[in-house]
């Protein structure tokens, strides 16, 4: 039978393929799978889609549409070899099928095909606990499964339905899932080859004191490191600062496309009610990240951006001279201990000053103090 695709089918197939091919485009594999799963739902209306990967001695089955309790049940029934990453099972017949599948390089099968293989070798699908207690209640009473295998282990994609009699969009869904198999294999290879290295790299970035944003070639945020999250935690205009960082990354990519050598990007500044931030951007080394076109944007230590003249603060806001001094320290997000050190007073006195100033200004947090001092509501 010749597979017939409408123009919409072909478009959705391309979108699902493209999503599967981009496992490193997001901050982690689960974010990638969320996007890929949404594309698969568009391609197979009414179907469930599930990704299965080894997670220690068990599998991690991931699906947005399957009840979490059922996913947990399948995880508990699963087995995985932590040395090889091969899938196993608590059910003897399913464990046998996994060994058979690997021995015969079976990469694509339906429930009917898998059940036929089991029955031809003396196993009864009607007594298979993985199917009757795991897959079927989870919405895979009928399914097509595609499997990828490499040196890191196995990764499965399962597309299935709540009822065996559920209406199908395609006459031969096995063939359509088969068209996605090469993309699944490429994604698995990318995760195995670069995923561990990228995880280690991101952990290193989180350990750094410099605040960094990494943006991919398509302009998506790949990683906000821990220092950046801390730097912007109390910033009311956080989204404004991040937008400026993304704009600078886009400028780097544009200049890179025009220049024969690496472009030189001057620093940028972003002014908010709280602070002035200096931004610097550079191309991320492809050899380090495993892909071209990534940009790193650094945010330098913020400097206070209090524009109200010091002597005007008491008159405008009803603060005493000492309270105005405390307010300026709070606007810089200094802790009570740091306020005490700056004023040469005890921690108890500093806490009293802090509470009184914030009460007078109607400020719930230190970031609000900066807004009040700069004339904000």
Automatic annotation (TrEMBL):
<keyword id="KW-0804">Transcription</keyword>
<protein>
    <recommendedName>
        <fullName>HTH luxR-type domain-containing protein</fullName>
    </recommendedName>
</protein>
<dbReference type="InterPro" id="IPR000792">
    <property type="entry name" value="Tscrpt_reg_LuxR_C"/>
</dbReference>
<keyword id="KW-0805">Transcription regulation</keyword>
<keyword id="KW-0238">DNA-binding</keyword>
<dbReference type="InterPro" id="IPR016032">
    <property type="entry name" value="Sig_transdc_resp-reg_C-effctor"/>
</dbReference>
<feature type="domain" description="HTH luxR-type">
    <location>
        <begin position="312"/>
        <end position="377"/>
    </location>
</feature>
<dbReference type="Pfam" id="PF00196">
    <property type="entry name" value="GerE"/>
</dbReference>
<dbReference type="GO" id="GO:0003677">
    <property type="term" value="F:DNA binding"/>
</dbReference>
<dbReference type="InterPro" id="IPR036388">
    <property type="entry name" value="WH-like_DNA-bd_sf"/>
</dbReference>
<dbReference type="GO" id="GO:0006355">
    <property type="term" value="P:regulation of DNA-templated transcription"/>
</dbReference>
